[in-house]
Amino acid sequence: MLALATVGAIASTGAEALQGRQIVATRGTQPGAASAAGSSDSAAAASSGTAMPGAATDSVPEIAAPLATAPSPSEPAASEPIVAEGRTELGDGLFAVREGKSVTVHFDVPQARTRRRDKFDRVVRATLPRVYGPAAQAVLDEIPQGQIVAVGTLPADLEKSGLRIPLGDSASIELWPELRDADGGPLVVGYRAELGR
């Protein structure tokens, strides 16, 4: 009888010890404990000014958004216009006419025709990417607003000499403003664009 009681007491003590170990092990591997440890490490690293290995320092959307509109480095910046041969409507009375590698953008409407360099700048920014695609947009984004035509120059002054917008790799988009006579002097009512080198 005494032997049975002794065996029972030993078995009970062993079971309690084993159960205690399982509880300790479970607590050590609970997700809450791991995340709490990670949070405290991150907080400590942030307060000390050191970066955790593998921690992201830039937001992916902020980096990816500009790259999505830029031309791929493995492709030419612009090989030809993206509009089809013939006439393409651009909206609000504006249209483009492509003949081979040359495209003329017509904007002889009150809201677009101009003598002013700032207004011509806005028209070019609104239409050139429609003719040459993301490559043109990426280049125009690098030119400060109002600076497509040099300060002190009017768009009408460039009818014969044209202006050059560099694309890289020695390529460029060359623009020649198109004029018509009007009261108060010639008005810029369009531009002809070609890819040049």
Describe the structure.
There is one protein chain. By secondary structure, the protein is of the alpha+beta class. It folds into two domains: 2-57; 86-196, no CATH class. Helix content is 41%, strand content 22%. The protein has helices at residues 2-29, 31-48, 60-69, 117-132, 134-142; strands spanning 86-91, 94-99, 102-106, 163-168, 171-180, 187-196. A six-stranded antiparallel β-sheet has the order 1-2-3-6-5-4, covered by helices on one side.
Task: Give me the secondary-structure topology.
Layout (H helix, E strand, L loop, with lengths): L1 H28 L1 H18 L11 H10 L16 E6 L2 E6 L2 E5 L10 H16 L1 H9 L20 E6 L2 E10 L6 E10 L1
Largest sheet: 6 strands, antiparallel
Mean pLDDT: 73
Number of DSSP E strands:
6
Amino- and carboxy-terminal Cα gap: 107 Å
Elements, N to C (H/E) = HHHEEEHHEEE
**Low-confidence sequence ranges:** 1-11, 17-76
Question: What proportion of the residues is helical, as a percent range?
Answer: 40-55%
